[in-house]
Amino acid sequence: MYVDDSGNQPASCPYHGWTYREGRLLIPGRERFDGCALERAKLRTFAVDWCGDFLFFAAHPQTDLYTQLGRFAEAVENISFNIDRRLDLNRYDFECYWPLAIENALEPYHIGAVHPQTLATLGLEDGENVFDGVNCAWYAPVGASRQRNQLARLKRFFNLDYQYEGYASIYLFPFTMISSTYGYSYSLQHFLPAGVGGDRTRFTSRLYAAPAASEQAAQALGAFFESTRDVNRRVFEEDHAICKRMPRNAWSMAPLACAADTEAKIDHFRRACRTFAASRAALPVVDATREAAAG
Fold first, then answer.
1. Considering the domain 85-277 in this protein, what is its CATH number?
2. Are 144 and 131 in contact (CB under 8 A)?
3. What is the 8-class DSSP label of residue 158?
């Protein structure tokens, strides 16, 4: 039904014209479906909720949105109110099992080796890991003085009421990352399982600009945003290049045997995976055959 990468359109099937509008399914030639319970036909629905200007959906929510986001709900709200427009949509498959892609995004230990000409040029300091429930974040000051001073001077071009003056990366279990440098733009990333097989991850990054202070400021920021987009794409390409070298059996839910302090978020992620797996195992198993016979 939806084949474009973005935008809005009616919920209408281009093959036979079935259309969902205002809660009703409109079916051309409805009278031809004799004996069919068309009144029972409907689209699959999801639970939705807002956090600021971000809309979240869930297939089978186990709690409410703000409980799931925990202490990071405030940051997510503030970020949503401090984005202006989309700068880039970057979507392709990572050739790896999705937890491997998540762990690559979580730990900064690899930055020097994998991103020497991109992310590593910021000279990110150790910073602080923040954990809350299954979610976590990393806030790291920019250690490279030249880049730090350049970024600080750009602040006058923006109209911000929320900013972390450094590099911030927020992980929302299980599939979402939000990252930013100085709050001038935000990369919203999703790492979704690609179905049966498990050797691919549906990766999407949406890059959003923070509001400019004026029209003149927006024009002055053109080259900066173009560079931001290009660097973001290069960083993800570098991550993909290393992730696709790791086989699926390189990952497990077990704690790392020997973890650096920069890999603390990996162990936190694996612990969250173990907790989720245990909760799934505790669910009652329904014998569909017996249930059908009883009905």
1. 3.90.380.10
2. no
3. B
Convert the pLDDT of each residue in 16-71 to its tens digit.
Answer: 999 998 888 999 999 999 989 998 888 888 999 999 999 999 998 989 999 999 99
Residue 192 CA from chain centroid, whole number: 9
Q: How would residue 284 be classed by pLDDT, with cut points 50, 70 and 90?
A: low
Domain ranges of the chain: 1-43, 46-81, 85-277
Under DSSP, is residue 109 helix (H, G, I), strand (E, B) or coil? coil
Residue 282: pLDDT band with limits 50, 70, 90: low
Rounded CA-CA distance 249/239 in Å is: 18
Q: Which residues of 93-121 are buried (b: 16+ CB within 10 A; e: fewer)?
A: ebbbbbbbbbbbbbbbebbeebbeebbbe
- Neighbour count for residue 123 (Cβ, 10 Å): 16
> Helix crossing, 222-243 with 98-106: angle to 10°?
130
Q: Strands 19-21, 24-26: parallel, antiparallel or unpaired by DSSP?
A: antiparallel
pLDDT tens digits, one per residue of 217-270: 999 999 999 999 999 999 999 999 999 999 999 999 999 999 999 999 999 999
Residue among 254, 253, 256 nearest 264 (CA):
256
Distance (Å, whole) CA 159 – CA 71? 25
Please give the structure tokens belonging to residue 15: 């093959």
Rounded to 5°, angle at Cα 235 from 229 and 238: 140
Contact 170, 183 (CB under 8 A): no
